[in-house]
Amino acid sequence: PVLSRSVDREDGKTSQFVDLMLRLGMVMGGVLAVTSLTAGEWLLDLLFGDAYKNTALILPWTLMLITPFFWSSTLSAVITAHGRYWSLASCRAIGALVFTFAVPLIGASFGLLGVILALGAGLITLSVCQLLVLRQHYVVNLFLLSGRTLVMLFGAFVVSKMLVPHNIWLALIIGIVILITFGFLTGVLQQKELRTGGRFLLSVIKGR
Question: Comparing 98 with 81, which gets the higher pLDDT?
């Protein structure tokens, strides 16, 4: 209802919401991926036992799916608010087709990781299609935003991976610090959003 009213008013808040949610999805996926890359094996052993340690290799890729899933969910809500139900259904069908065809192609070479990558391809295709549907309402350069995010993630991943053999917790902390730093440098993160998040976290802590 809130999105629908904003769309009807054309007050620009929906465009801000779309931009914020796309960037937030990238940051969430990055933080989870860095966490799994550094402390994933330890967490799996703690939660599920030694038998699941080998899955730590695919855990970062799996958690990175949070990003395109977050995108597609956000954009689906916006398209629904515009009442373009057939367009949304068409995009979902295209994403499902990409996933269906990608599974045997990639899965045959990479196994379970290939299935995860195929799912990522389907979700990204869905998100791109949804952005194309919304292009007459909002201007979002997903390729530029994705490029900035890749720079942000690459720096965090490389340093974290180098530090893992020495200390996983040091690797985790420095990886997240680099992720946030590169986020500000590339414009994926903004200071006002960090302040808002900090105030929210502080209010939660005080509430406890």
Answer: 98
Q: Is 129 exposed, middle or buried, given 0-12, 13-18 or 19+ CB atoms closer than 10 A? A: buried
Q: What contacts 170, CB < 8 A, 6 or more positions away?
A: 163
What is the reported pTM?
0.76
The 3-class SS string of the chain reads CHHHHHHHHCCCHHHHHHHHHHHHHHHHHHHHHHHHHHHHHHHHHHHHCHHHHHHHHCHHHHHHCHHHHHHHHHHHHHHHHCCCHHHHHHHHHHHHHHHHHHHHHHHHHHCHHHHHHHHHHHHHHHHHHHHHHCCCCCCCCHHHHHHHHHHHHHHHHHHHHHHCCCCHHHHHHHHHHHHHHHHHHHCCCCHHHHHHHHHHHHHHHHHC
Tokens describing residue 199? 């105030």
- Tokens for 2, please give them: 């809130």
Of the candidates 15, 11, 23, the residue with the CA atom closest to the CA atom of residue 190: 23
Contact partners, residue 162, CB within 8 Å, separation at least 6:
171
pLDDT tens-digit profile of 12-27?
A: 566 667 777 777 788 8
